[in-house]
Amino acid sequence: MINPFFENKGPFKINKILNNINSEINVTNLETNILDIKDLVEANNNEITFFHSKKYDSLASTTKASFCVTTKQLSHILPKNCKPIEVKNVLVATAMITKMFYPDSITDDFDVHALNIKKTLFKNSVNHGQNVIVGKNIKIGSNCSIGHNTIIESNVVIGDNCSIGSNVIIRNTLIKNNVSILDGCVIGKKGFGFFPNKNKNIRYPHIGIVIIEDNCEIGSGSTIDRGSLSNTIIGKNTFIDNQVHIAHNNKIGENCIIAGQVGFAGSSTLGNNVMIGGQAGISGHLKVGNNVQIGGGSGVIKSVRDNSKVMGYPAKDLKKFIKENK
Question: Is 4 a residue whose pLDDT tops 80?
Fold first, then answer.
């Protein structure tokens, strides 16, 4: 369930895809239909994926995709079932292909079909404040409340017993049961994904969603971006303090505690029972293990093993940090 909300405009012939990115490939049938674009793990037969870094060589070597956008230096890692499409810039080419399949994912224009909740079927089933706006393709469970001036834009599912604060904006998000989202949050908007260009920056489509599991709390003023080619996930019983930013594709585990003003770059994974002190920063494409504790103000630029305690910049073993800063 990578993209349940955005309409897939495919399939496209592999020949059309190659022409769009100005590339070539040695295949016998250029009329082969490609059904979708997905990441290395989710892609299947007759689908296309991308592989741009050796960090993901173990995933690339077992992908089930039929085609993969990659570089000449990495193409040998792909399995026999997956034909490499060699390009100079993998991410730019992937963005162009994703835009073909999901052109509506580029922009985040407001929902022109949104209505005041008093004019919808939710007027009697949801406890709501003043000036609550509800868009299309919305489901709200039982015993939920929504505060003043909140906008539940298009493509949102809210479970039972959820509390949504005032001045909140939510779109492209699945919220499970017993979730509290405090005032001023923005959830499910597109991530900070683009490629710098002298004339006009190239935007990367974000076709993923945000999933917030049961019993979570999201603090005031926090922002959670939807995924690009995978989903941004907040695990069960995770509590997030005020003014925390979680970028696209992050996977936060269960029972985590994240203090105020922590920032996550994209595509990192946190294990379960992780505690992070205030104003820490987590770089992108990292893996933080289970039961890890990260001190406030730390800068995590490398993956962290299970059961570790780290602090400082760059973050290091807590005992070593204390010894060096006596």
Answer: no
Q: d(Cα 24, Cα 107) in Å, to the nearest integer?
A: 29
Q: Hey, is 199 helix, strand or coil? A: coil
Spans of all domains in the chain: 12-105, 115-324
For residue range 141-150, list pLDDT tens digits in order. 999 999 999 9
Three-state secondary-structure class, residue 237: coil
Query: Please, what is the Cα angle at 153 between 150 and 155, to 5 degrees?
Result: 140
Distance of alpha carbon 202 from alpha carbon 313, whole angstroms: 32
The highest-level CATH class for domain 115-324 is mainly beta
| Cα separation, 314 vs 310, whole angstroms | 9
> What would the two tokens of residue 73 be?
């230096």
Across 295-311, average pLDDT: 97
Catalytic residue flag (residue 128): no
C-alpha–C-alpha distance, residues 237 and 219, integer Å:
13
CB atoms within 10 A of CB 237: 18
| Contact between residue 232 and residue 225 where contact means Cβ atoms under 8 Å apart | yes
The reported pLDDT for the residue numbered 28 is: 67
194 touches 209 (CB < 8 A): no
Q: Is the peptide bond before 79 cis (omega within 30 degrees of 0)?
A: no
Angstrom distance (rounded) from CA 202 to CA 207:
16
Please tell me the CATH code under which domain 12-105 is placed.
3.40.1390.10
Catalytic, out of 128, 206, 245, 248:
248
Residue 140: its H or E element? strand 138-140
